[in-house]
Recover the amino acids of this structure.
């Protein structure tokens, strides 16, 4: 868990703003309801569209800050100020994390920043309502994130998040004022398995609502159009690439198509 100076006030305000958005009347939210992943701001709910889809017990407000920016006017007024401030803090944290992760890989500290693999943020403001039959569903099916890095802010009153550790699912009890940094699949690929993405899930529960805000870091517009592959500097005769090159949007499309059916798209890209 890390917190490099993100004010606790900005974190609490973001969770409260998430609650405010979701607890509005349906009339207020329905204009943003859409399954069109190209929209920068959209509201989605638990509606599987195919028979094989896994439905999850939660609603999501997604706000995409492509290249670190988003027109404030399209953000819902009930959470506009808080989301802008929170993303500002996430960008600062991203800069620190990019340096630390570059150095941990034995690269120059500006390496990950230069390849712009985390230069955009998709803020996912999650609301898991009270569930009357929690044994029949999940809050979030088991998965690893198809991102480079995820910074997760979770409700400090209600548990539910579990990660897979040594083949067992273990609870991650929330601690007020802390954030969780999860390596995503795409970082695992470019680091040639030096960093490992973490599988996790969220239980549906007979208490609620549980709130969380995930900040998914993905590439800049410039970087996202080209294929990514293992960082060349990490390769040698003894360390051949373990994965084939990938286009980020293809990776995400494969992940979405199989959400809930497989935990990770990594094996699909393994050489
Ligand atoms: O709500 C949480 O704590 C986790 C959410 C999550 O894993 C995701 O949205 O990818
Ligand atoms: Fe996740």
């Amino acid at each position: 868990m890390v917190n490099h100076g993100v004010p606790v006030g900005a974190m609490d305000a973001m969770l409260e703003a998430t609650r405010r958005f979701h607890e509005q009347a349906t009339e207020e939210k329905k204009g943003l309801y859409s399954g069109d992943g190209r929209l920068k701001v959209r509201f989605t709910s638990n509606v599987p569209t195919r028979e094989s889809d896994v439905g999850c017990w939660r609603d999501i407000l997604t706000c995409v800050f492509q290249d670190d920016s988003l027109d404030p006017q399209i953000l819902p007024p009930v959470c506009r100020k808080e989301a802008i401030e929170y993303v500002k803090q996430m960008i600062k944290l991203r800069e620190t994390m990019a340096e630390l992760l570059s150095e941990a890989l034995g690269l120059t500290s500006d390496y990950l920043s230069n390849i712009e693999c985390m230069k955009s943020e998709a803020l996912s403001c999650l609301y898991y309502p009270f569930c009357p039959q929690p044994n029949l569903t999940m809050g979030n099916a088991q998965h690893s994130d198809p991102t480079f890095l995820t910074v997760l802010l979770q409700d400090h009153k209600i548990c539910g998040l579990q990660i897979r550790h040594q083949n067992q699912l273990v609870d991650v009890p929330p601690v007020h004022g802390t954030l969780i940094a999860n390596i995503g699949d795409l970082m695992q690929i470019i680091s040639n398995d030096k960093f490992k993405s973490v599988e996790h899930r969220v239980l549906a529960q007979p208490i609620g609502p549980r709130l969380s805000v995930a900040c998914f870091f993905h590439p800049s517009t410039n970087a996202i159009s080209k294929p990514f592959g293992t960082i060349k500097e990490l390769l040698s005769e003894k360390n051949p690439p373990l994965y084939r090159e990938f286009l980020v949007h293809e990776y995400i499309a494969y992940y979405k198509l199989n959400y809930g059916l497989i935990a990770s798209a990594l094996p699909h890209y393994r050489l």
